[in-house]
Structures are given as structure tokens and as C-alpha cells.
Amino acid sequence: MAKITFDGIEVEVPDGTTILNAARTIGGSIVPPAMCYYTPLKGSGGKCRACLVRVAAGSAKDPRPMPKLVASCVTPVQDGMVVENTTSQQVLDVRKGIVEMLLINHPLDCPVCDQAGECDLQNFAFEHGVSTTRYEEERRTFDKIDIGPLIQLHMTRCILCYRCVYTADQLTEQRVHGVLGRGDAAEIGTYIENIIDNEFSGNVIDVCPVGALTDKTFRFKQRVWFTKPVNAHRQCENPKCCGKVVLWYKGKDVMRVTARKDQYGEVKEWICNTCRFDKKETADWTIEGPAHIDRSSVISANHYELPVLNAQVIADLPESSVRDLEQNPPMRLGN
Amino acid sequence: MQSLSNRAKKLEAKPMTLAERAYLPAIFQGLSITMRHFFRAATKKQVTVRYPEEQRPFSPIFRGLHVLKRDEIGRERCTACGLCAVACPAEAITMVAGERKKGEENLYREEKYAVSYEINMLRCIFCGLCEEACPKAAVYLQADKMAPPRFERDEFIYGKDRLVEPVSPDARSKRGIQLTPEQAAALAQRMAQPDFK
Predict the structure, then answer these.
(1) B155 occurs within a structural domain
(2) What is the ipTM of this complex?
(3) In 3-state terms, what secondary structure has residue A190?
(4) Residue A146 CA: distances (Å) to CA of A165, A196, A267, B36
(5) Where is the 4Fe-4S His(Cys)3-ligated-type domain (chain A) (predicted)?
């Protein structure tokens, strides 16, 4: 076990845990943002630099600060480490620079993009970036590549986080999808424009932090903030598919199906393409209730969830209604 | 009956005086006020306007009927991003987005466009939040036009046919459609009419 101090909060975590995961055990607003790190994908992280933190003391044995800011998602903790994230002005300034760097080649076509409203880059830039750009040169463009009838690839929006590549590598047997080219010319693609027709290929849509890989069957159908997310499940024939999803409703129609994401936007249980693209009827699913949406998200406008049991409210209620609440407790959120 | 609150005020009808009972002095007093206004209207500034022919000036910051703007070469600016609809406190705006096809590049500015765009003028409170939310400078509230009164409710749901700005003669020429000077003048005259669509 290693004891570290993160933003003045002491936390004890097993050896080998990364700084980012140690911060996530504390939780709340001190957790560094992550654009490329994805817990279920082995080898992910260390690419986008969004999670840079300052290590003020390397360890108990060698308390010198680390000379440069380190990527918290790939740096393991050491006993006695002191880490600064929101308490260091240097980290906050550098994060502004990271936003600027990630947005250099980003087309900023959010009004057109289907990811807008649930985009990690949009949230990251909104929280940490500046509203102007100093970039005057022409932005990177690509020839359009059609990667099949289910997934839409927009290479201009890609920030090269490699999440989709790891997903394709680790989830599917045949690797047909990878990074071509180097440096500024690097792009996500498939050799000889191979059509991705794997049962789990749809998961690259969920792991993509930006709108580079989006659901083609949902393309331009509806803005995400006009749809209502509802948790649902079904008995899927595919043994690797968990069958637990979020259905996004507009009125009575299921506009799209996605896997469930946790508070850090990570999918823990993958779903197959049958669940994602073919089961778009309410009759196919068992509805569990409204999915949890963060209050800070634009999707939470007009989104209602089940009431939470609140001790103070209950203390103010008349005795008869408290008895009624105890007999029929409302469901708790987030499970 | 005893009053419940003790706040009831007792009213007494006083007997009328002789002048009041005579009736005519009160009539003449009232008529004199009427006649004073009658002659003032004929000689001094009028307090009414002759409405359809004459209109009161609008304030320069008046927010009236919406318009969906076109860009300098006559393409629709709206990309159906939905920000106006989410900003709208009255939920008056609905839209359906569509993908631009090949060959429609001179009609729509972006890859995505509004196939239908509707504003319910009965719901709209003309607050201008849609104008503020629009990232493409597409929707504006005009300072000189109002939604005119109609008889049927469904006539207040303004679709793209009534919201999109007409193509200006110069935008047509930029798109390669040449108009003769007479045609341009006739078009400009037609566009100036209030019922132009």
C-alpha cells in the first residue's frame, strides 16, 4: 500500500495504482480530466496530456519534485508522493495550453456534430479552455472514408486518443482498424477501406471521446439533448454481450442504443451490434427507469429521475407520509 | 348582521342637492368636457393613428417576427443544431435535420440543414434567446415586422416557407443567375411588398 497526498487529501491505495485512479478513489472535482485513458482498455492513456499533474514530492525516500508535469493516467504512485492538481496554477495554465493544442486541428463543427452535448472534448474545452483561438493556419483535412453502414468516421474531428484502436484490438479477433501514418499525418483508418463487420465493432462509437466515430443509424436524427435516456436490458444470445444498455427516446421512438457509461464516461460492459443497431423497439427491452444524467450536462434539461430519499425532507413530513415512505421506499439513483 | 372583521365601511346615501336634482347642470358639465376634447382633436395633435395605413414607429431594439438568414451567396445559414430550441423558454421551436446531398451545396451552407423548422408564434414570447444562442448567425428577430393576427391557430405555426429570408437579387447573381436590370427591379419591388413569400 502507498500513501499519497492529492491536492491536500491523503489517500491510501495499493502499489502500482496510477495517480489518476488514486484521485478517482477520492472522487469529486479534484479528479483530473482524461481524454485518452480508458480503464477497461489495456495500454490506453498517456496520449492526450489532459490529465497532467504536478508531483511536488516524488516519494518519501526521495522527496524532490518531478522536473516536469506528469501524465497522471500512466504514472504509478509511490509512498509519500505529494501531487497537486487543482491547487497548482501551473497545472491549470498548462491545461489551457492542452485544450488549445487539441483544438488546433479540430474543425469545431459542433452545430453539425452528433456528439455535441455528450462530447468529452467539448466539456474539457468548456471547463479548461479559452474562448478564442490563436491558430491561423489551415486545419488538417482528410478524404472521406466510408467504414461501413453502421459507423460514421469523421477523421477531421479525431484527436488521436487511440481508444478505438485498443477497443478493436482487445474486443475483436481480427484487427482491421488502426492508425495509419505518422505525426501530423496520422489517422485512424482501415487498410484498403475494409468494412468493419465485427459483432462488437459498435463499441468504438461509445469509447470515442469526440465525434470522430458516431452512430450512422442515428446520424442527424436528433440532437442528444432532445432525447430521453432510459436504462434497459434484454437477454442477449451473444455470451460476450451484457445486454444492459441506455435507450435514447424521442417521444415513443428509440432513436439509438448505447452502452452504459459510468461517471467518468467509461463503458464497463460492452454490448453487441445486434443490441445496438437492430433492437430499436420498446418491445425488445425491459425498461428499468430513467438513466442518471449529471446536472451539469445539457441533456439534463427536462430530464426527470426518480426521487431521492432525503433525510431532511423526511424529518419535515407528517408522520403518516413517513410511514408510507418506509413501506414503499423510492428507488435510489445511480444503481 | 354583525360584521365579522369590523372593517366594513358603512355607506350612507346622502340626499341630492338642488343642483344635482335639477339634472341639466351635470349634463352640460359632461357635454362641455366632450366638446373640449372634440375641438382639441380637430385643432391640435391627434392622439390616435389611422392603423393599417399609418403605423406607430417601432423602437430600434424591438424584437418582432423571426427570419432565417441566408449567407452572402444565398445559402441557408441554419444547420439545425437545436441550440435555439434548447434555449427557448417557451419551447416554441421545433426542427428536423437532414443531410445535404451532392449538388445542394449552393442551397445549404453546412453538411446538415433544417428540413423543417417551425416556430409557434402563439407560444413565442419574443425574448430573443434563440437569436443569442444561434452559433451560425441564422435566426434573427426583425425590428420592423410582427406576426400578424390570424383566425386559425395553425396559421401561427410558421414553417420555413414563411421564415426563410428571400434570396436577394445580388445573391442570385453571385450564384451565376443573371438578372436583367428590369427583372432585378421587378423582383426588388415584389420583395418590398408585405405579402411577399
Answers:
(1) yes
(2) 0.79
(3) strand
(4) 17, 10, 25, 83
(5) 90-129
Determine contact: A298 vs chain B, CB below 8 A. Answer: yes
**Cβ neighbours of residue A219 closer than 8 Å, sequence gap 6 or more:** A114, A152, B99
pLDDT of A334 reads 47
DSSP-derived 3-state class of residue A20 = helix
Number of other CB atoms surrounding residue B39 within 10 Å: 9
* Dihedral sign, Cα of residue A51, residue A52, residue A56, residue A62: positive
A37, A54 Cβ separation under 8 angstroms: no
Q: Are B105 and B136 in contact (CB under 8 A)?
A: no
Grid coordinates given for A136: 491561423
Residue B184 lies in a domain: yes
CB atoms < 10 A from the CB of B16, how many? 10
* pTM summary value: 0.79
Q: Judge contact between A204 and A175, C-beta under 8 A.
A: no
> Quick one: pLDDT at residue A120?
93
Q: Which of B76, B77, B83 to mutate to test the interface with A (most CBs of A within 10 A)?
A: B83
Tell me the pLDDT of chain A averaged across its residues: 87
Q: What is the pLDDT of residue A296?
A: 83
Query: Do the bridges between strand A2-6 and strand A82-84 make them parallel or antiparallel, or are there none, so unpaired?
Result: parallel
Q: Which of B80, B81, B99 sits opposite A219 (nearest CB)?
A: B99
- CA-nearest of A45, A32, A35, A71 to A159 is A35
B172 lies in some domain = yes
Report yes or no: B128 at the A interface, CB cutoff 8 Å: no
Residue B158: inside a domain: yes
* Segments making up each domain of chain A, as ranges: 2-100, 102-132+140-218, 224-300, 307-335
Of A302, A108, A293, give the one whose Cα is nearest residue B81.
Answer: A108
The CATH code for residues A2-100 is 3.10.20.740
Here the CATH number for the domain that contains residue B75 is 3.30.70.3270
Number of domains in chain B: 1
Q: How many CB pairs under 8 A join A and B?
A: 36
Cα distance between residue B153 and residue B182, in whole Å: 40
Which of B83, B85, B97 lies nearest to residue A220, judging by beta carbons?
B97
State which residues form the domain around B130: 66-192
Write down the number of H helices and E strands in chain B.
7, 5
Assess B80–A contact: CB distance below 8 Å, yes or no: yes
Residues B124 and B92: beta-carbon distance below 8 Å: yes
Contact B138, B69 (CB under 8 A): yes
- In CATH terms, A102-132+140-218 corresponds, of 1.20.1260.10, 3.60.15.10, 3.40.190.10, 3.30.70.20, to 3.30.70.20
A73-124 per-position pLDDT tens digit: 999 999 999 999 999 999 999 999 999 999 998 998 999 999 999 999 999 9
Cell reading at A121: 472534448
